[in-house]
Each structure stands twice: as structure tokens, then as C-alpha cells.
Amino acid sequence: MIKQAIIPLAGLGTRLLPLTSVFAKELLPINGRPGIEYIIDECLDAGIKEIIFIISSKKLMIKKYFYSDNFYKKIIKKNKDPRILNEYKRILKYKNKIKFVFQNTPKGTGDAVLKTQKFIKNKYFLMLLPDDLIIQKNCSKAMINVHKKYKASVMASMKVKKNNVSRWGIYKINKKLNSRNFTIKGVIEKPSRNKAPSNKAVIGRYILPQSIFNKIKSLKPKEGKEIHITDAIQLLINDKENFIAHNFEGKYLDCGTIDGYINSSIEIGKL
Ligand code: G1P
To answer: Which atom of ligand 1 is nearest to the CA of 11?
Structure first.
């Protein structure tokens, strides 16, 4: 049963500067709503009951957005505008599902995952990266179904241009299960073009086993380097943990770059 999701939100968002110098990128509006709300909706629609946000003290703004009860209450007292009331109810619904943990030094996704260890209850949990929006089809829901069928870990995947592999985690297929699902032989974080085992990239949705925590702990980051979740996944694959790459059906929107961010508003506006 996948009932918990984690979302790393402590990243600095340097690819979105200058917007992120004073603003949390996950709160930037995409077609009138903070990007993170699309990610939360995907989780709730996929049956997730609890979402753990990994933030940093620099990104307290995110917590404030969901903990603004007093602000809303004061306004609602004077102004019974149903729109404001509905917005408040929506924020409350989100707030009740979210727990916050802190990662105050940005040491990579692997390190962010580790911060959630004491809260994870079941054998498997979902992780979503907030830069990656997937629209038109709920990717998390589809991955949970794949997980149920194969009792395996799952990662979202798509083909990328060969000259762009160094932007992604790139994996190598072991076996085709059906048209959308493949077992994985290995995965490498942002390889150069000549070291890439394929042009198949990992996109920011993962169903991970609790055993990933010990693998992360065994990865010692070199001076100033991040701990990548990809490297911990490779250690699990070495230990024969079954990982499946799921070619998702929806449309991918990369909100982590300025061009992608602008385009995501246009695409979501068309829905
Ligand atoms: C992260 C992961 C990478 C993955 C990508 C998907 O990279 O480390 O393996 O392919 O997300 O968006 P980031 O975007 O944080 O650089």
C-alpha cells in the first residue's frame, strides 16, 4: 500500500533565478496557482493520505502558505466572499495532509529522502520532484498500479534527446515487461553523452522501498557534493531489488527552467 508521499523542496532553484532570489520556486504561479498545488492534487487523486514536505529554513514561505489560518479568518470575518471561503477550505484540506521536515543544507535528493526516514510507515513510499509536472494523466496513480502488479519499485521515465542526456538520470533496460514497463539494469546520474547507457531518462516520480535509507547512509558525499537518489537506487539494483521504469502516458512539463516554467503556464492554460 502506498499511502505516503515525500516531496523535496529545499533546493535553491538557481535555474530559475532571478525569480527565486526571494521566492520559493514551488509557489510560483502556474496558470494562477502555485505549482506545488498541482503536485499535491496528483498525490491526493492517487490515494495518498500523508505528504511529507522537506523544506529548509530559507523556504519557510512554503509552510506559511499552508499555515495562514489567522490571515484568512480575519478576512472572512469581515468579508463573506464565497471565493475566499473556498480558497481557505482548499488550503485547509492541503494543510491537514502535509507534514514538514527540514533539510537546512542542500545536500541532494538522497539526503532529503533520509530526512523523512522516521516518518515512513509502510514498506514503500512515493517521491515526487516538484519541478516535474505531468499533466493529462495521473502518473503517480499509474505507477502505484504498476507497483501493485509487480510488487516492485517504480520510476517514471521518458526518452530524451541524445545530446541532452547529461541533464538527467539515465537508465539501462534489463527486460521489457509490456509496452510501458521495463525492468532496469542500472541507472547513472547526469552522464556525459559518451558514458550514457541509453537516452532513457528518469523523471521525478519514484516508488521507493524503505531499504533505500540504509543505502543512502552508505553513500558518503565528497566535499561539497550532493548525495543523489540515483546512486542509492543503483546500490539497491546491485542487491537485486526489482526496479521498473514506467513510460508514463501524460504530458511532461519541466518547471525547473525559465523557458519550461513559462511553457507550463501555457500548457496548463489549455486544459
Ligand atoms: C533530478 C534527478 C534526475 C532526474 C531529474 C528529473 O535532477 O536527480 O535523476 O532525471 O530530477 O527531473 P534535477 O532536476 O534535480 O537536477
So the answer is: 15
> What is the CATH classification number for the domain harbouring 179?
3.90.550.10
**The three three-digit cell numbers of residue 88, written as one number:** 481557505
- Could you tell me the pLDDT band of residue 222, with boundaries at 50, 70 and 90? low
Count of the separate structural domains present in the chain: 1
Check whether 241 has a pLDDT greater than 80: yes
> What is the CA angle 180-184-186, rounded to 5?
145
The pLDDT value recorded for residue 220 is 80
In this predicted structure, what is the pLDDT of residue 43?
A: 98
Ligand 1, pocket-test mutation among 16, 109, 219, 261, most atoms within 8 A of CB: 109
β 132-135/29-30 pair status: unpaired
Which amino acid is located at 39 in the chain? I
Hey, how many other C-beta atoms are within 10 angstroms of the C-beta on 79? 9
Residue 154: predicted pLDDT: 98
Kindly state the average pLDDT of the residues 202-229.
91
Nearest CA to ligand 1 atom 7: 168
131 Cα nearest atom in ligand 1: 12
DSSP letters, 190-241, are S--TTT-S-SEEEEEEEEEETTHHHHHHH-PPPTTPPPPHHHHHHHHHHTT-
Global model pTM greater than 0.90: yes
**Residue span of the structural domain in which 214 resides:** 4-269
Q: What is the DSSP letter of 61?
A: H
Provide residues with CB under 6 Å of ligand 1: 109, 129, 131-132, 168-169, 189, 201-204, 228, 230, 256
